[in-house]
Structure formats: structure tokens, C-alpha cells
Amino acid sequence: MQLEIITPEKEIFKGEAEAVQFPGLDGSFQVLNNHAPVISALAEGDVKVNLTEEMSFDDNEAVVVDSSNKKVIRVAIRGGVIEMQNNKVIVLAE
């Protein structure tokens, strides 16, 4: 699925993901390929992304690569909104 994480200042991430875990207002939740359409508010926390392949993030301080699995990244957010539809996930984050 295509994932975009965007803040008011810049685009944090754009790429392919196998799974994405979000900090929802009522607890964390995860979306996978072919997930039903959803719109949800997000709380402060980390967005955990399982990438389809390893990527380099040397120039992006907002993205933290998991030390034990290079295909897993985390992006800290202060809240926001997620929309998933037709295997495309857009995260508007603070």
C-alpha cells in the first residue's frame, strides 16, 4: 500500500508499506493491504511502518530506523488524522 506522512512543514515519508500501526485516540490500531476505508483521529505517539523494502533515511531526522529490523521505521507525531482508501494511506500529522 502507498503511504504518505505529511506535516504542515514538509512531507516526512512517501513510499510502499506492508503494515502501518498508529496511535489512535482509543489505543493503537494497524492497517494492512486491502483494509476497509477508514478515517481516524490520531493521538501523540509513534507511527510504526513495516516497509516492503529497506530504504535510506540519512537526510530525514524525523524517521527513525529500527536497529533490529531495517525494514521497520518509526515517526513521532503529536497527533493528526489518517485516511485509508484504495490501498493509499495519507497521514496528516502535527
Can you walk me through this structure?
21% of the residues are buried. The protein has one domain: ATP Synthase, domain 1 (Sandwich), CATH 2.60.15.10. By secondary structure, the protein is mainly β. It contains no helices and 9 strands. The two termini are 22 Å apart. It is 0% helix and 62% strand.
Q: Quick gist of this model?
A:
With 94 residues, the chain is mainly β. It has no helices and 9 strands.
Q: What labels would you give this structure?
A:
9-stranded mixed beta sheet, mainly beta, 9 strands, 94 residues, single chain, 62% strand, ATP Synthase, domain 1
Overall pLDDT confidence: 94
Rg from Cα: 12 Å
Low-confidence stretches: none
Give the helices and strands as they follow along the chain.
Answer: EEEEEEEEE
Silhouette: globular
The total domain count is: 1
Strand portion, in percent? over 45%
Give the N-terminus to C-terminus distance in angstroms: 22 Å
Task: Tell me how many strands there are.
Answer: 9
Please report the number of helical segments. 0
